[in-house]
Design goal:
homodimer; Alpha/beta knot; elongated
């Protein structure tokens, strides 16, 4: 039986201030909850039907005090989503990832990371996390104006990639200025170089900066960009859209940087 | 002054059955309404603030009987969106594009088109239309299971690209089977060939098929695919996401086909 207090707590996590207080977030749906448990995310409370619980390998089952068998109706009452995922079965309150303090250089290392300069749409953020996961990018550095990674819309649209990609909120201009000069910082601009032909010495490393949906990359962040790129429309003199959706542009640039490694 | 009947009509267009009856759809926001008027879309009724109307070149102003100056409060009452676009200013009822009857061969010609096999999320459809526009793709053939291009969410997320990209609903398996054998039909499959190295003789032509968010390309449509492709994850043996978001995958493949033309 779910208490009113539990229902109230789970619903409260739809709001950022309660997520910030409790350092928890909610994930809904069998596949998502399974993927996050399988990735080792720590469950505070797992609310699920008996058949979902029976389907979980013992190694993924949280401590028994955190497991709450529920009926389908109870899960429906617990859901905070306008359209709960089909098949229902599980809602889980997870602990947010603990914050770790590392220098910018350590955080980037010799790998490729993404920086988001005010991406505000939760669906775009979720899609970018999924793209990062596909292309083996494990860290996303987000400005404080970027959507909250633990908001229900973001969590649901990552399709589990959230478990494998870390999103770290930071002051982006100072973060970038603290990187060694040798770290390539890529960004897209209308006057940038064709991303397919621009010289890129180390496509395997650096920071790919993506800007806000309406305004692109802010002036302060643009100062730190070392490689100004552009995704050419087709034909070159296209009089069509002024821009691509930011998640689509991120996908194209990640794909291109990964293609370059293989083409070397 | 807006009549209750007008408000009721505009609101009714959020539902497909009323759009199908009236063959109209609604677009909201200064930029979107401007872009659609500029593209020659025919307005049935333009509801806008005086400053928006004054900013329109005379050539874009609809017939005076279709122009209805409104206050900001009237526009707010007319809006059917949960979050109306910032800056408001204009809501316009447009006529849907007239349906034209052409053969599959005529419809495709020697250009690249996209086919959508059950893409159900309106945001994904809108983003794909915007991507198509960026890459000079003017026609999208959509199965009847695909989201409705005139639904408010799709219209808003196309950012005006709707004016330049035609979406044609059709029975996709028969459409594909009526294409000449020489027309390349591209599709993505987990066992497809690396899209960066697979031989593609005529990247400028053919049909790029994208599948449903959960199930991919249906068996019937897959039968017609001549080039089975795959977007390689990184590293190759990635144990991350099982798939990319369909709009992200579309962006990567359109970009790659366009890159191939330039690389020839």
């Amino acid at each position: 039986m779910l208490t009113r207090r539990t229902i109230k707590f789970v619903h409260s996590l739809a709001q950022k201030k309660y997520r910030d207080d409790s350092l928890c977030f909610v994930a809904e749906g069998r596949k998502l909850v399974y993927d996050l448990l399988a990735a080792g995310m720590k469950a505070e409370g797992l609310y699920a039907t008996d058949d979902f619980l029976a389907s979980l390998p013992a190694s993924l089952l949280p401590a028994s005090t955190a497991v709450h068998p529920c009926t389908v109706a109870e899960l429906a009452a617990l859901s905070a989503l306008a359209s709960p995922p089909k098949g229902g079965g599980a809602i889980c309150v997870f602990h947010q990832r603990p914050l770790v303090s590392v220098t910018a250089t350590e955080a980037i290392g010799n790998t490729l990371s993404i920086a988001l300069d005010g991406v505000q749409d939760p669906g775009n953020l979720g899609t970018i996390i999924r793209t990062a996961d596909w292309f083996g990018i494990h860290r996303i550095f987000a400005s404080h104006e970027t959507a909250d990674v633990y908001s229900p819309k973001v969590v649901q649209s990552t399709m589990g990639a959230l478990a494998r990609v870390e999103v770290i909120y930071t002051d982006l201009p100072s973060f970038i200025s603290s990187l060694p000069e040798s770290t390539p910082v890529y960004g897209t601009f209308l006057d940038g170089d064709n991303c397919y032909t621009a010289p890129i010495e180390r496509p395997e490393a650096g920071l790919l900066v993506m800007g806000n949906e309406g305004n692109g990359i802010s002036a302060q962040v643009a100062d730190g960009v070392t490689h100004r790129l552009y995704i050419p429309p087709f034909p070159d003199s296209s009089c069509g859209s002024e821009s691509l959706n930011v998640a689509s542009a991120t996908a194209i640039l990640c794909a291109e940087l990964r293609r370059r490694i293989r083409a070397k």
